[in-house]
C-alpha cells in the first residue's frame, strides 16, 4: 500500500527517472504534507553543463514549498546531488521541479503568478499562501524580467508617454506605450518624469530590437521635459499633444474661474463637478444645477461653454476643417477677459502644431490613462508597493502583455 501511495504521488508530481517518492508524512495537527524525493544509489545524473552521464558525488538536503494538496501545506524534501564531471568538475544537478536556488516549485511559482495576474498584490498573495511577501516579489520580478528580455519591439512605430505618481511628495514614474491598436502595450517604465526618461526608453527600445529612427509618431502631454527629450532622442517623431490633457488643461482653467467667482456668487460653492463633467456624465442633481445657471452671465458658465466648444473641434474630419475653428476659438478665448481661459488658450497656441497633429496621427493617450487607472487602483490596495521598482514590475505585469510561459497544467494541478 505504501509503495502504491508513493507511486501515486510520483505521478502527481510528474517525476521522471531517477527521481522517486521515498517517504510521505502527513500531520493533521499542522495540516501539512511532507514528501521526500530521492534517487536510487548508482543513478546516472546528467552534467548540467554538457549533459554527460555521471554518478552522484555528494548531495545537500533541501526543502521546497509546493502547491497545496487538498488545502494542506505541502513541502518537498530532497537530496540535491552534485556530480563530478570529468570535463567540468564538480557541478550541482538542477532538480526538475524547481529553478536553481529557489525555494518554491515551478508549479507553486505558476500559482503565485496567476494570483498576481488575477488582481492580487504580492502582499495579498503572501498572506493567502502564508509566505513572506519578499519571497513573492522575487518570483514576480523573475518572471517579469525574463519575459521582458524576450519581448520584441522591432515593429514599434508610434509611442505614447505619460507620467503617473508613485506616492505623495511628487514622486513619479514615466510609462512608454506602443500606440499601435493591434499591439497596444506598455513598452517601458522608469522612475522620474524628465528628459532622461526618454533616453532610457530609447536604450531599452534598441535592446529589444527596436529602431528609434522607425518611430514616426509620439503622443504626450505638454510637458517641456518630454518635448525636449523626444525631440533630442527621437527626432523623426511627429509630436501629438494628447487631447485628454488638453481637456484637463481647460478643465483646470474652468475650475479656477469658478473658485475665483464663488467669492461673490455663493451659489457656485460645491458645484465643481457640475462644470467639469460632460453633459452625459452629470447626475440628475448636477444637471438641474447646470440648467438653472446656464443662462446667467457668470464667467464660469462662459468658460464652461468655451471648454465644450474646444472639445467639439475634435469631431472634425480633417485638419482643414479643424484649424479655422481652432483659430476662431483662440480669438474668442483670448478676448474673453477671463484670465484663466486666456492663459490656457495661449498655452495651446504655443503648442499649435502638436495640437493639430491629432487630425493626422489620430493617436491619444487614452490607453495610457486607462492603464494609469489600473495602476492607481492597485496602489490603493493595502501594502501594495514599497518602492518604485515594485510599482514598475506591476506596470509590466498589468499592461506589457508579456508571455510568462507558465506551465499550462498549473491551474488544473492546484486543488482548492
Please provide a written account of the structure.
- It contains 17 helices and 12 strands.
- With 416 residues, it is an alpha/beta fold.
- The strands form 3 sheets. Strands 1, 2, 5, 6 and 7 form a 5-stranded mixed sheet that branches. A 5-stranded mixed sheet has the order 10-9-8-11-12, sandwiched between helices.
- The longest helix has 19 residues.
- The radius of gyration is 30 Å and the shape is elongated.
Count the helices. How many? Answer: 17
Coarse structural class: alpha/beta
Distance between the termini: 26 Å
Mean pLDDT over the full residue set: 89
Question: What general outline do the C-alpha atoms trace?
Answer: elongated
User: What share of residues are in beta strands?
Assistant: 15-25%
Radius of gyration: 30 Å
Q: Provide the helix percentage.
A: 40-55%
> In terms of per-residue confidence, which ranges show pLDDT below 50 for 5 or more consecutive residues?
409-416
Major beta sheet, specifics? 5 strands, mixed
- What series of H and E elements makes up the topology? HEEEEEEEHHHEEEHEHEHHHHHHHHHHH
User: What's the count of strands?
Assistant: 12
Amino acid at each position: 500500500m505504501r509503495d502504491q501511495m508513493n507511486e501515486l504521488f510520483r505521478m502527481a508530481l510528474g517525476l521522471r527517472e531517477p527521481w522517486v517518492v521515498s517517504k510521505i508524512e502527513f500531520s493533521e495537527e499542522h495540516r501539512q504534507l511532507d514528501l521526500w524525493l530521492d534517487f536510487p544509489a548508482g543513478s546516472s545524473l546528467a552534467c548540467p553543463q554538457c549533459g554527460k552521464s555521471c554518478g552522484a558525488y555528494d548531495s545537500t538536503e533541501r526543502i521546497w514549498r509546493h502547491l497545496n494538496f487538498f488545502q494542506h501545506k505541502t513541502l518537498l524534501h530532497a537530496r540535491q546531488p552534485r556530480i563530478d564531471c570529468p570535463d567540468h568538475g564538480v557541478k550541482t544537478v538542477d532538480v526538475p521541479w524547481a529553478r536553481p536556488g529557489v525555494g518554491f516549485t515551478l508549479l507553486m511559482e505558476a500559482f503565485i503568478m496567476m494570483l498576481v495576474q488575477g488582481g492580487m498584490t504580492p502582499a495579498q498573495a503572501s498572506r493567502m499562501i502564508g509566505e513572506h511577501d519578499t519571497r513573492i516579489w522575487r518570483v514576480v520580478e523573475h518572471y517579469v524580467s525574463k519575459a521582458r528580455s524576450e519581448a520584441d519591439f522591432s515593429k514599434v512605430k508610434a509611442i505614447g508617454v505619460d507620467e503617473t505618481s508613485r506616492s505623495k511628495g511628487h514622486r513619479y514614474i514615466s510609462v512608454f506605450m506602443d500606440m499601435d491598436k493591434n499591439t497596444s502595450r506598455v513598452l517601458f517604465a522608469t522612475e522620474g518624469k524628465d528628459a532622461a526618461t526618454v533616453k532610457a526608453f530609447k536604450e531599452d527600445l534598441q535592446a529589444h530590437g527596436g529602431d528609434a529612427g522607425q518611430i514616426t509618431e509620439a503622443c504626450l502631454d505638454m510637458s517641456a521635459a518630454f518635448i525636449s527629450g523626444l525631440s533630442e532622442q527621437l527626432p523623426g517623431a511627429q509630436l501629438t499633444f494628447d487631447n485628454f490633457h488638453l481637456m484637463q488643461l481647460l478643465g483646470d482653467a474652468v475650475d479656477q474661474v469658478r473658485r475665483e467667482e464663488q467669492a461673490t456668487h455663493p451659489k457656485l460653492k460645491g458645484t465643481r463637478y457640475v462644470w467639469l463633467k460632460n453633459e452625459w456624465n452629470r447626475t440628475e442633481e448636477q444637471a438641474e444645477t447646470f440648467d438653472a445657471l446656464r443662462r446667467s452671465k457668470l464667467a464660469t458658465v462662459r468658460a464652461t461653454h468655451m471648454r465644450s466648444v474646444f472639445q467639439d473641434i475634435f469631431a472634425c474630419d480633417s485638419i482643414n476643417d479643424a484649424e479655422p475653428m481652432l483659430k476662431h476659438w483662440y480669438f474668442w478665448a483670448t478676448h474673453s477677459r477671463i484670465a484663466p481661459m486666456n492663459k490656457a488658450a495661449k498655452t495651446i497656441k504655443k503648442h499649435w502644431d502638436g495640437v493639430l497633429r491629432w487630425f493626422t496621427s489620430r493617436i491619444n493617450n487614452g490607453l495610457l490613462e486607462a492603464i494609469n487607472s489600473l495602476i492607481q487602483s492597485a496602489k490603493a490596495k493595502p501594502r501594495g508597493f514599497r518602492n518604485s521598482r515594485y510599482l514598475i514590475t506591476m506596470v509590466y505585469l498589468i499592461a506589457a502583455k508579456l508571455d510568462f510561459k507558465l506551465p499550462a497544467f498549473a491551474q488544473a494541478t492546484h486543488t482548492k
